[in-house]
Amino acid sequence: MTIKANLSIFDIIGHLLLWLVLSILTLGIALFFFPYSFARFVINRTSVIDQSTGTERKMVCDINIFSNIGHIILWILISLVTFGIGYIFYVYRVWNYALNNSRVQ
Fold it and tell me: InterPro entries annotated for this entry (predicted)?
């Protein structure tokens, strides 16, 4: 099995511009929601290809940004207490969470 990501440069630029505007409008608070959106963005554009049959199956990330508000509030507090160092760990935990809540169709 191989993994293939279908990310175009225009999709990436659009996604980044959207989150840049959101982070400016919310004075940086949107940056705590960005890792969820980023993980979902990449996973939903990824496929798993079975080399023996050539079958391509799409991956789907079942996370919702706003359903994890408690998780986000916890990491905001951790990031504030650690003066931003906790955010580095937060990004890894979000990817862990996103991959554990993904499936192959």
Answer: DUF6693
Please compute the mean of the pLDDT values over residues 34-43 and round it to a whole number. 93
User: What are the strands, taking DSSP E only, across the chain?
Assistant: 2-5, 46-50, 55-61, 102-104
For the stretch 44-97, pLDDT in tens is 999 999 988 989 999 999 988 777 788 888 888 988 899 989 888 888 988 999
Side chain identity, residue 101: N
* pTM of the shown model: 0.85
Q: Which residues of 26-60 are buried (b: 16+ CB within 10 A; e: fewer)?
A: eeeebebbbbbbbbbbbbebbbeeeeeeeeeeebe
Backbone angles phi, psi at 83, to 5 degrees: 55, 40
Q: What is the pLDDT of residue 103?
A: 95
**Is residue 75 a contact partner of residue 28, using CB atoms and an 8 Å limit?**
no
Q: Is 90 in contact with 35 (CB distance < 8 Å)?
A: yes
What sign results for the dihedral spanned by CA atoms 84, 90, 95, 96? Answer: positive
